[in-house]
Structures are given as C-alpha cells and as structure tokens.
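Researcher: Before we compare anything, I want clean individual predictions. No alignment, no superposition, just each chain on its own. First chain goes here; please echo the sequence and then give the structure tokens.
Model: Echoing the first chain and its structure:
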Amino acid sequence: MVKLESYYASRKTARAHAYITKGVGRVRINNVPVEMVQQEVAREIMLGPLEVAGELRNKVDLSVKVKGGGFVGQSYASAIAMSRAMTGWTKSRKEPKDHPLTRTVREDLRRRLSEFDKHLLSGDDRRKEPKKFGGPGARRRKQKSYR
C-alpha cells in the first residue's frame, strides 16, 4: 500500500491539500493534469515550485485538491501546498528505505525551494494590522466631542 502524506495551504479563501507519493512525475489538480489547466497564468503559478525542483519532480507524484476562491487564489494555494509537500517530504528524520532521493539531494531541494520564494512558503504577509490598544476609535474620528 502506498503511503500518502498530506500538506495544507491556503491563500485568501482558497484552500489546497497536496498529497505526495513516490512516482513518475504526475501532477494533478482536482484530478486534472496540471498541463490541462485552462488559465495560462494559473498554470504558470502552479508550475513554479516544480520548475525549481528540476529533474527531481520526475520521482514524485503530486495530487492537489483545491476549492474556494478564484482561479488565481487557487493557483497560489496549490503552489504553496506543493512546495510545502516537497519540502516537508524531504524533512523525514529517519532514512526511509523506499525514499527515491538521497539525503544530500533532499537537503539541496529544501534549500532551493526555500530560496525560490520566501512568501510562498510563509503565506500571505499582506494581512490587516490589528487595532492598537488605546488608539482612536471610529467614534473619535467622526466627531469632535463626546457631548
């Protein structure tokens, strides 16, 4: 039986779950091959982490289930999930017998993916800043006095 490892990512309202196994390089998004994704922009975003992996992408199979949001949000969420899956899969502490990559190759892949795009791995950094304690509220901005 093939062991699936699942990794989760989200972008805006899109949520993606990536499953990674040892394989021959198949990448499927919602059971559709990534090469058949209609929007070219979304396809390029999704293929970004795979291009960084290079020839190593031919040793794993990735399956991504994504829902919610628009097609750009879904493509970013799936790219984040795929890069987390590849880096998380290479972080195994013990040396599995059936792992297709050697330890040095896994460390190199993890380094390249983390250098590729820091904000993809950390998520969206454009979140709203929280309200400061003791700062002006909405009422104070609208009127001059409280009387």
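Researcher: Okay. Second chain, same rules.
Model: Second chain and its structure:
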Amino acid sequence: MRPFKTEIVLQTTWGRVWELLADFSLYPQWHPLFPKVTGSGAAGDRHQLLVHLPGIDPFPVQVTLAAKAEGALSWQSTFLGRPFLAWTFSCRLEQVSPGSLKVLQHSEFHGVLAPLFRFAFSRSMEEGMAQLNLALRRWGEKGNVSCLRC
C-alpha cells in the first residue's frame, strides 16, 4: 500500500530538532499531530499517543515505540491483529549540510483493512503531516526549545 510521505529542509541544527522530537514532555506545547504521549519513552515499550488529525476529533492509539535512536523515531500499532490492520509512523533526520537538515516523515497502513483506513484518513493524514512540518520549522528554526520547558 502506498505510504504517506513528506519531507522538509530546515535551516537549523540536528540537535535542536532531535531535542524537539525526542522529548515527549514537550509535545503538548508544539506537536500538532501527537499532542500527548504517555509512556516510558524507551524503545520497545508500549505508549499511548493522542492523535489529532485535522478535521477529526483527537483519539488515543496504543503504540510501541519501535525506534528511538539519534535521528530516528518510529511508532507501530496494530488493530485487531497485524493481518487486519497495522500502522507505522516514522520521522527521520538527515544532515544536508552544516546548519541544514532534512526531516522525512513516513506513515503507512498495512493489512486487510489498510485500503479503507488509507482512504478514510488520506486528506487528514496529509494535512497533519504538513502541519507537523510547519511546527518543526517554527520551533526548530526560530523557536526557543529551552523556553518550551518554562
């Protein structure tokens, strides 16, 4: 099934954007797509994401933090078991040049029900990922990350 993909190039440092992505306690202040994450923050552990897609009321999703390594963050979830519906979302950083990096987002549904969910969430998912790119630009390039902790 065709995934949702976006990318944006930011004029900022790797560490600044990674700090935004890796610190889940900051999400309520800046993250438009996942405004709340509860859980340990450790890769392999179960977490709960509050997903807020444009035009759809926020809803909780139980996920596993599949990867949380320097520059890569990935969530996985299954609904009714993997053969029926599974969802993955990842965000990865790539250095373009000193002071410039690319942020790549990837979201994909798998399983028997995947075409239905892709159709139902298509527009909202694309808009939500675009909003996340704008938020990363705002806070990654111009915002004061340390001020988010105030």
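Researcher: What stands out in the second chain?
Model: The chain has one domain: 4-144. Additionally, The CA atoms of residues 119 and 125 lie 10 Å apart.
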